[in-house]
Amino acid sequence: MTPPKKADVDCLKLLLSKLLSLVMLVSGPLVKLPQVYVILSKQSAQVRNQQLPVLLICNRQKIRRRHQKGLSLESVVLGLLCYIVSAAYNYRNQYPFSTYGETVFIALQDAIIVSLIFWFGTAAKKSKPNLTAFAIFPVVIAAFVYVLFEEAIVSKEILFVLQYGSIVLINASKLPQLYLNYSQGSTGNLSAITTILFSLGALARVFTTIQEVNDPVILAGFLAGAVINFLLALQIVLYWYGLFLEIVIQINKKHFWQGQGTRLFRQRQKGHQEGRRAQAAGD
Q: Is the pTM of the predicted complex or chain greater than 0.85?
C-alpha cells in the first residue's frame, strides 16, 4: 500500500483545522449560556445556601461544611478584558475570523455575566443590586474596546505587549476561582458544561493555531488556557465525587443505625419475654 503523500496529509490537517474552527465558531455564542442560565435560575451569582459536606482533597479524613459562593467576580472581569485584548490583537493582525471568532462571542457573554453579578449583587452585599456599577460597566467596556481597536491610540507594538500580558492575566483570572473552589470545598455555581467546553475548545485551538496562524503568542495563550481549564474541570469532578461519596456514606450510616435500632429493640423484647416466662415459672 502506497503511503500518503505529505501534501495529502497537510491537506487533511488543514481540512480538520477548518472543521474544528467552524465548530468553535458555532459553539462560541453558546459556550457560556449554561453559566448565564445558572445565574438566572438561582437569581444570584453567589448563593449562600448551606451545602452538603464534601471531602477535602488535602485530607480525606476531614469533612467540612461551607457556604457556596459560586462565581468569582474578579475572574470574570479579568477574563473579559483579556478576551477583548485577544480579539483586538487577532483583528489588527488580519488573522482569519474563524481562528478567533469565538473569543468575540465569549467576551460578549462574559459582559452579560458581569452585568448579572452587578445586578444580583455579591454575597457580601446580601445579593442587593449594585445599580451604579451595573450602569457604568457597559460604558467602561465600550471605551476599552474603542481604544484597543483604534490604531491611532494603541500601536501594534503596544498591543503585542498587551497580548503577552493578557496570556498571564487570562490565566491569572482563573486562579481566584481555583482558590475559591478549594477554600470552600465546592465549585458552587460554576457550570460544569462551560468548564468542560472551555477545556476541549482550548485543546482544539492549539491545533488550529499551529495549522492556520502559527503565532507563538496565540499558541502560548491556548496552551496555558488548556492547562488552567483542565484544573477547573478536575476540581468539578473531584468535588462532585466527594459529594457523591459523602451522600453514600450518610445513607449507609442511616441504614446501619436503623438496623442497629431494630436489633436492639428485638433483643429488649426478647429479654422482657424471657423475664416474664421466668417469673411465671417461679410462681
A: no
